[in-house]
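Work Package 3 (structural annotation) set out to generate three-dimensional models for the target panel prioritized at the project kickoff. During this period the team completed the workflow that converts sequence records into discrete structure tokens, so that structures can be stored uniformly alongside our sequence database. As a representative example, we reproduce one entry of 434 residues exactly as it appears in the project archive.
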Amino acid sequence: MFTLIVYNILLLIFSPFVALYLFWRLVIIGKSRDGILERLGFVPARKCAGSEPRIWLHAVSVGESVAARPVWEEMLEVLPGWRLYHSTMTDTAQVQAAKAVGTRGEMLYFPFDFFPCVWLALSRVRPSLIVLVETEMWPNFLAVAHLLGIKVMMVNGRISDRSLRGSTHLGPLYRWMTTNIDRYCMQSPGDAERIIAIGAAPDRVTVTGNTKFDQIMAPVSLGEQVKLRGKLGLTRDEPLLLAGSTHEGEEDIVLRAFRQVKTADPRVRLIIAPRNINRAQEVEDLVSAHGFPVARRTRMATIPPPPDAVIILDTIGELARAYALCTVAFVGGSLIPIGGHNVLEPLAMGKPVVFGPCMSNFRDIAVIVNEAGIGMTIHDAAELAARWLELLNDPQRRRTIADTAAVIFTEHRGASTRSAHAAALLVGSPVQEL
């Protein structure tokens, strides 16, 4: 309790600066306006009506929401009659998650971690179970949940190098937070060891695997691929490279590698999908600076793309389908210290994937796909170009990778089911542990 008091005193001291920051986001740049009342704890009464038992699942952004979908779907299977409340922090995650949730639950914006905001939100929703996805631990949220007698579990849990370093500086706070979580379903033995090192009781920790292997990627039919290629101005016989979820600093490396590939095979085309679509103009300017013709996906309906253009995929929710079109993929956030993004998306479409060495957020998946030979780590533009050319010129290897990827997915599925059964046991449902 002393740790919680200190945390809230510090929040109070810094609250004027927080208020100024919120004013800047809301008024000056226009962000975080959607859901501001929910962020303050004022969940609308219409969302809270009814008396059914409730699961509050929190996934901070799009990636975590996608990984969480098979978890909450399994939970609703083993806990029939329960209602889902799915919270996120970002607007794009709200849109994506709302499509999946539909009428099976309610969407919420996660409250600011101030005691009154959290107390108000949890008192209104009245969940019986809180499910935190991956690394989401907030002191006041956990404290209020504990005070209200709400069971809390972490699913698809992982502890990044950054979180582990943070725990050394904020040891008492991390140790206190871990006591307020009743069950940890971790991605790997390494993550289990790290959460125990931070302060979790070993008897509360279980290794369930990574739920990203349970994501069901809807196949993109040949007809859909032809239609999408037409919309993107691509012909059927053009080899296609796709650089997905790129960040500042990575597009330049991708474009330098692409120039080497293009010199070897002039037919090759490139799509760049920046992680933040608000960077689309910046990426467009960079492509032009490299001397390539460029086209934006959002403008293609009115402005026909120039021949041989590098395409910037500045849309939400289209990347997974675009992976089905490509010959070889690169997944970003991995050549700079971001921690990587989900390399399983192109592999689920049977596509070879290349990524950089900075994969701390997907450490175990990177090891699995590297060892299986279906993914490759590169370090610079020269290596990226070399791997792209190797794979472009070896269709048999690409077919082998697609077959092996299907086997790897089958071998590693089941984390969502194991997590759902752990949740049922936590709330006293008569479901047998796997």
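The two ends are 36 Å apart (CA to CA).
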